[in-house]
Sequence to fold (709 residues):
Amino acid sequence: MTETVNTVHSRTSEAIEAARAAGRTALIGYLPAGYPTVEDSIEAAVALGNNGADVIEIGIPYSDPVMDGPVIQAATSQVLADGFRIDSVFDIVKAVSARTDAVVLVMTYWNIVDRMGVDTFARRLSEAGGAGIITPDLVPEEAGDWFEASDRYGLDRVFLTAPSSTDQRIKLVVESSRGFVYGVSVMGVTGARSEVSSAAEQVVARAHEAGAPRVAVGLGISRPEHIREIGRYADGAIVGTALVSALRDGGPAAVGTLTAELATGAVRDGAGA
Amino acid sequence: MIEHTGSYQNQPGPYFGPYGGRWMPESLIAALEEVERTFTEAREDPEFIAQLQDLFTNYVNRPSLLTEVPRFAADTPGVRVFLKREDLNHTGSHKINNVIGQALLAQRMGKTRLIAETGAGQHGVATATAAALFGMECTVYMGEVDTQRQALNVARMEMLGAEVVAVKTGARTLKDAINDALRDWVASVDTTHYLLGTVTGPAPFPAMVRYFHSVIGEEAREQVLAQAGRLPDAVCACVGGGSNAMGIFHGFLDDPGVELYGLEAGGEGMDTGRHAASINLGRTGVLHGARTYLMQDEDGQTVDSHSISAGLDYPAVGPEHAWLHDTGRATYEPVTDTECMDAFQRLCRTEGIVPAIESSHALAGALRLARRWADEGLVGPDTPEAEQKIIVVNLSGRGDKDVATAAKYFGMLPDAETPAGGDAEAVAARPEGAQS
Ligand SMILES: Cc1ncc(COP(=O)(O)O)c(C=O)c1O
Fold:
């Protein structure tokens, strides 16, 4: 398994390493595809990429998003109610990739990929310029087809590790991931929280110990000071709900403003200007 | 079609052929492993088995009766119908079997809080009951639509000390209640056991829930042998997630002469799209932790299901049923709301038993099967006793909770008392001349 991991050129790894070299914590931002419209979701993601995000996660709206809290649920169910179709995800990825240097990943519940067929999905994603998939409800044990398809099309695969994960499972997640490991900072669903969970540092340390070269922390992160704190131990910080709220209240421009602000927290101490 | 040779019984999971598995967020995997470990140890522990037996006998009211219903079957001479009376269990349905088993496991794991999803409210009531019995906290998630059509069960759960959360997302029915229960569990897993109410979900739930319900089939097999002197020709059960069906099927899986019928909710008819017949629709995918048949659109979005019975209003089905379908060991057929309510009324009028609307799908399936046999000339008034056909129906629950829905359906409520909204579905589905 490690062999194939090394033969694929990982664009996500490259983006995170470039941030590190520049003295920054990689900034990773999530936005739902098609929210509030397909056009504005493209504008918002472009604003994210052009204001300091290193990696963009395009979330695919799904009818049963068990890992999402109320803000993201409200956004994605609105998109679905408006008649969103999966095909537009590839158009969005393509448009965003063309207009920013940030690396574009897709975040999706697995049934969406399963329905299309993992090979077809991976091929279309790769043709659109996407770099990989984050899979919140897929564990490595069920991912046999995805390993094959991601190797075939040169895509990154981001699995999650949680505060509850056993050492054995962390090792499995680390060995299965390519790009980075997504460290879930709290036992809970997505949603902005006022403080970074005390469990986050532990989650990251355990993944690093298990051999992960890159670990990003997600869930509950909404402010520059959160990112500054996380940057002391993690390689990347993932912001979702806060960006979705900004988009809801202020449109794509507000996403740009918030991203620029968050990016100030990504500059590491002593990195110079 | 999948080839299967050898025993069908005691399939351990996590996979049933290509179905099942553990399609879940990583955050919950450790908890699922803990449940699996605890269950695996407990079923080998004589003390646990004794505890379970004691509660089944002295609290649940097991064994449940097997009752022959000759007046119900009178239109098809030569066919004998027996009902497995899960309706007589404490709390009024089969759901309590699984709940007692899992509540004991929760206690063993040191958990102090139970959460559950519920559709008809029967599983929620059973969970609230066990929480009261074991001194645990309890939160039940129920789709808002279901809190309205099963209002009596909401009050029952609250009386038992449970908190009932009306879920307002999605279609506001069972699948959405499961989503919210999972979201709760991710955040509360240290103290909380998610007491899943059917044979769906990630491993170990499908095999574990089946284990706790397999008592239904074991008893039914012995009882029918004692009363009729032989095994039945067919067993019928309704299928929502599929727990009562797995429970009764399990006892007969390795009796090749016993046909197994799972009756899915055909709602307003398969061609209307308004139904909950996941297997009959025939699309596989992953939902709520398992690969199985599920109702979804071309993009993989779950499609809303529809049934007059809240307990069958679920767009997927337990993975073991998907496998039994593919192997051909069991047959799954849809039953429409209308057929179901005809059977409901027939059992009330001929036998003095008010069935749950869920279970009435199984009754309708039995009537259909009996007619089919009669049409094929396999049975008739002159069939000698030894050649008569026997059907065992799992009467999974009683209809007390459904009195309001059924009264509206049959037009038994004075107009002034029929709310404008509420159970519009039942009113709309009312057949001409159903006023009685
Ligand atoms: C009486 C009764 N029968 C059947 C069901 C359906 O569940 P399952 O298919 O798991 O038996 C329910 C669910 O609420 C029920 O209350």
